[in-house]
Design goal:
The complex is a heterodimer of chains A (304) and B (209).
Chain A lengths: L2 H12 L5 H13 L1 H18 L4 E3 L1 H20 L1 H10 L2 H4 L2 H18 L23 E8 L4 E7 L3 E7 L3 H13 L3 H11 L6 H13 L3 H13 L4 H13 L3 H13 L6 H10 L3 H15 L4
Antiparallel strand pairs in A: 2-3, 3-4
Helix pairs in contact in A: 1-2, 1-3, 2-3, 4-5, 8-9, 8-10, 9-11, 10-11, 11-13, 12-13, 13-15, 14-15
Chain B lengths: L3 H5 L7 H4 L4 H9 L3 H23 L2 H18 L9 H22 L16 E3 L9 H19 L3 H12 L4 H8 L3 H18 L5
Helix pairs in contact in B: 3-4, 4-5, 4-6, 5-6, 8-10, 9-10
Classes of the chains: A mainly alpha (304), B mainly alpha (209).
């Protein structure tokens, strides 16, 4: 063994990690090399010095205290959210086997929970017939597209998944969705498109009631005006006449009022004469008053 | 590494699981199934060793206690992934070693490298084995304390890996191969760390040698 090898093996020798053959060679070199012998003694002295540092042993008090604190920490783990998740996974062996699957499951659960707790549209119980329980699950309607050529309507909506309905107003499901949208959906653009869709084919009594409802009750002026147009297209009838008379009692939007008066005057008969007289004298709008005066004069010859 | 390396090193007693005839594998299985009592039993089997390792490395009762807790919490959280490919003790000691190593790195980052001093009135958490010598007198005790502090400061100047390797080899008597396994590195790397540590200590403590 050379001095270089001896120096390299000094520590291994002192720590008794030198294999048998190398140890013998090491000791042989030590016996014949004073310089290396001195180096070994210096390193041994350092070892002895370092050995003076007292070894430490945890006292029983420290161990007890450590155990108590660990118990508390484990309680927090077990009963905190980590523990709940862990317990859940331990109860599901298939998930337990795969960390990736577990993470994926958490994501799916979180998404599902968020979806479940999302704000929903309040639906009337009477609309519950659509595709089983699906109508009750409508959370949004993104598109209502009538096709005047074919008379069909395309509706895109979400019921936990995106659904596209396509069909004519003969399909009760289509009618139910459209009537639901007119009465309940909060987007006035969709309500207006829905009114158009309801008109692509001759209105049933049910659809007529929905149109009248929108004309009288929709909170949006534009939608009410579009509904008024739609009702006008239904033609004159006692039902339509009564709807217009009711509208004029409560309508505050001048454009809608004028539209209603024009239609009423154009179809005026003895049944509407009392209402026209009242409007002719009391309505705030000069145009409405003039139209009603003319209609009353034409119907009864009365002068104001 | 076979976990028995630690135990055969002499500084870490043989696990009481085998002495008491406890089926460690069954305990682990139960703990993996969420049985807290089984996990507590596992803790009791090894926690004195864990605390000793931490205390030996950081020499601070408070820090050792924190490391003890951190190590067992890590084991608790990841026990379900233990696949019996190594001895449980090996796995556990590897966790505590790495926790200690990370702690030393953080402590170095915070420049808190001074050797911990025991405050007056603080509970006597250390049981200093050297002080039990029947020949001690006050001067010798004081001298030993000074030397101990000098050595502590010199050790604190080693980098974390050198420090852990040196503590485990010199004070805990682990073989370099076992140290390499605990640190997830080779025996050769552990040996080089030990050489560098010794060289630095030689320089730091040259006045005392």
């Amino acid at each position: 063994m050379k001095c270089k090898n001896f120096q390299d093996n000094l520590l291994l020798y002192l720590y008794d990690e030198l294999p048998g053959e190398e140890r013998a060679a090491f000791e042989a070199h030590r016996a014949e090399c004073a310089h290396c012998r001195q180096a070994l003694e210096e390193t041994r002295s350092l070892h002895q010095l370092l050995g003076q540092r007292p070894a430490v042993e945890p006292s029983p008090e420290l161990l007890v205290e450590a155990r108590q604190q660990l118990e508390e920490a484990l309680d927090r783990e077990e009963f905190g959210w980590r523990g709940l998740l862990r317990g859940w996974f331990q109860g599901v062996p298939a998930l337990h086997a795969s960390r990736a699957a577990s993470v994926l499951t958490i994501l799916v659960l979180g998404f599902g929970l968020g979806w479940t707790l999302r704000p929903r549209v309040n639906l009337p119980a009477s609309n519950g017939g659509f595709m089983g329980a699906d109508l009750g699950n409508i959370t949004s309607i993104s598109q209502v597209t009538p096709d005047p050529q074919t008379g069909e309507v395309r509706i895109t909506l979400d019921t936990g998944r995106r659904v596209t309905l396509e069909g004519s107003l003969d399909d009760p499901r289509i009618r139910q969705v459209l009537q639901f949208a007119v009465r309940n959906y909060d987007n006035p653009g969709i309500r207006r498109d829905t009114l158009d869709a309801l008109l692509v084919r001759g209105a049933t009594p049910e659809v007529r009631r929905t149109l009248v409802y929108a004309m009288l009750n929709d909170p949006n002026d534009g939608v009410r005006y579009r509904a008024l147009d739609a009702v006008r297209e239904l033609g004159w009838s006692p039902e339509v006449r009564d709807a217009f008379l009711e509208l004029l009692k409560k309508e505050t939007n001048l454009g809608v009022r004028i539209g209603a008066v024009d239609f009423l005057v154009a179809n005026a008969d003895q049944a509407v004469l009392p209402a026209l007289r009242e409007l002719a004298t009391q309505d705030a709008s000069f145009y409405v008053r003039m139209q009603c005066i003319k209609a009353v004069r034409d119907l009864s010859g009365e002068e104001f | 590494m076979d976990g028995i390396c630690l135990e055969l090193a002499g500084k870490v007693p043989v696990g009481s699981a085998r002495l008491a005839g406890v089926d460690e594998r069954a305990l682990i299985r139960r703990a993996q199934g969420g049985d807290r009592a089984a996990f507590d039993d596992l803790v009791r089997l090894y926690d004195r060793n864990v605390l000793r390792i931490a205390l030996q490395i950081v020499r601070s009762p408070d820090e050792a206690q924190d490391l003890y807790q951190e190590a067992f919490l890590k084991v608790y959280r990841s026990l379900s992934r233990f696949r019996f490919e190594a001895r449980f003790s090996t796995w556990l000691y590897r966790v505590v070693t790495n926790v200690c190593l990370d702690h030393l790195r953080r402590r170095n980052t915070r420049k808190e490298i001074q050797a911990p001093m025991q405050a007056e009135g603080e509970p006597e958490y250390f049981q200093s084995i050297a002080d039990e010598s029947p020949t001690v007198n006050p001067e010798q005790t004081l001298r030993a304390q000074e030397i101990g502090q000098r050595i502590g400061r010199a050790l604190a100047r080693l980098n974390p890996r050198e420090r852990v390797v040196f503590e485990m080899r010199h004070y805990q008597g682990l073989k370099l191969r076992a140290i390499g396994d605990l640190l997830g590195t080779s025996e050769e790397t552990a040996k080089n760390c030990l050489f560098r540590a010794t060289q630095k200590l030689r320089v730091e403590l040259s006045e005392l040698v």
